[in-house]
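Fold this sequence, please.
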Amino acid sequence: MDFASLKPAADLARLRHMPFPGESPEYSRAREQLLKAEIEFRRQMTKLTEQRMALPPGPVIEKDYRFQDGTGRDLALIDLFGDHDTLVTYFWMYGPERERPCPMCTNWLGSVNGNAMDIRQRVALKILGRSPVERQKAFAAERGWSHLDFLQTVDDSFAQDLGLLNDDGSENPALTVYRRDGDKVRLFWAGEMPAAAADPGQDPRTAPDIASLWSVLDLTPEGRGDDWYPKLDY
């Protein structure tokens, strides 16, 4: 995008049309200023996306990580691309030591399930876990997920190399994007936001936030809150 040619956000914000009559002058001024900030934020997100898309070729994945699908087939990372040149994987926290999967992973996968058929028109999408595929699929059936493709990581080398296993036996999630380069696989992008990068009073999170739950709550007067997280059951 040619950002230099864009109209000033303040000029565009003045074009706002209030949906309901009766707003106070204070609300009108505050909403116009907020709209200006929203336009600037949208443009910054576009710039961030273009910066990500322009990343130079990432490192070649030299290690032969193996995965197993629901039929028991042994697959290499390059096999997960199918007909696409881009592969998106999400490693979720549902290892064999967990009785139930992570509620936050569950929340995110629920929204991804609703978009999976559309996503797969553009890229390959695989959900990776340390539990057997049948165990992952059993939970998916419980949640009504029917569009996600689950794989088991064979041994823990993949999770260990990505730093997803902690000393206390707990797991971390990982969103990773790969690019096919001939008969090789390169890393394109991985979520690398460290916990230390979290701002005061906030949990570690990516930018932009990939969870629709928080995007919706961010629109409300109460916001996300600082003492609430989704649960598996209510």
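Residues 1-54 form one domain. The mean pLDDT is 95.
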